[in-house]
Amino acid sequence: MLTSSGRQSIRKAEMPPVRAAFKADEDRDESEPPLRRVAQISVHTSPLATLGGKDAGGMNVYIAELACNLAKLALTVDVFTRRTDPETPEIQEMCPGVNVIAISAGPAAPLDKNELFPYLPEFAVRMALFSLREGVRYDAVHAHYWLSGWAAHLVKRYWDTPFVQMFHTTAHQKNKVANVADRETDLRQQIERRLLSLADGMIAANPEERADLIWRFGTPTEKVCTIPPGVNLDHFQPFDKAAARARLGLAPEDRVVLFVGRIDPIKGIDTLIEAVALMAGNPRLPDPTVLFVGGDLDQLGQPTGPLAGVVETVRRRGLDGFFRFIGSRPQAELPSIYSAADVVAVPSNYESFGLVAVEAMACGTPVVATRAGGLAFTVEEGVSGLLVAPRAPAELAEALTSLITDESLRRSLAAGARPTAERFAWPAVAASVLHIYERLSAGYRANLCQEEEIYA
Fold first, then answer.
1. Reported pTM
2. Fold classification of 241-424 (topology level)
3. How many C-beta neighbours within 10 Å does residue 312 have?
4. Cys bridge to 6: 102, 108, 190, 385, which one at CB 3.0-4.6 A?
């Protein structure tokens, strides 16, 4: 139930009633296809943002890949995001049929996502003004993350368009595993609960999330569809390991453990450091080389921001010689980097999907991941990787050790990695999402989901 202070905060982010700028059914030729154009909303981060930085990770990849794959199905997609730089063009084409729209709401500068809620009414108004000025209307809206969901709710009075909500992660799931200092706000929890009833449909990234939304929060079963994110199998594929290592300056005999991700407590970086300390302390085992991809480097190549804190922790533990920090890398380089590794570590405390794990498997590299959220459904135990408990450094160290020392096991899991990832090919994922858009646009509010299950 919302507290009185929560109700007051939410009311401040409401907008006065106005006449809708246009109706979804006005001026539509009955001979035209039922679905022509959709809006996606990602308030706090752009799909064009550099990956690995603050608030730029798997969700950015998801939005970009989904939009471009929907465009291949003859659907025009506009992705609305908040302007963080006054020099950013209003409209940028991300791929044929997909535009990224920079909306001015609040200062044109980076802001912490927890500061953005008061600017959502302005964001919604400017989205409506953009569509009116450009003469476009949307048959469905897809909101990513709770901030975007509230923006979709606010703009609905202008567009009168159904919206589907995808949280990517929920405050409840994050707070279960977060330290006190990293817990999500009460406001986020309140808004997420509101959105469960306000949204016309929900997309859960894994079966555990769907069950949580239904049983814990009472969302009607028929309203929640389980559709995982996807992986670009044309881009993420195996590269020659020797050549990939040569590009990175890694020796053929190195035992390479790869980490790829944002610098965020939920990613379990502290667990990885503890596991490496256990591995490095055993004189009977080969020394691991941990290639760490993520975070920011300055112009001199030195770690900065949150990454500097990780480097300092590694230094204090005396593990400098085991880690190589190369900062965030562009998507184009990742397949080669994944291919250079013996194993990819995904030690997250929670993941709604585990995109890094699936990208690694698509490149033929086995994974050691935690049984956390979607990872338990994307990584096939004993087929494409090994699963361990979250926050269990000793268990993680044992699993990583077994892969870097047992060549037979490593080859077996590598052989099963690519076939496991193929279940999550983007064409199938995009078709499932398109089905929901079509049902919502046609007026259905029940039985939204595809019959076939990608996770099956």
1. 0.84
2. Rossmann fold (3.40.50)
3. 11
4. 190
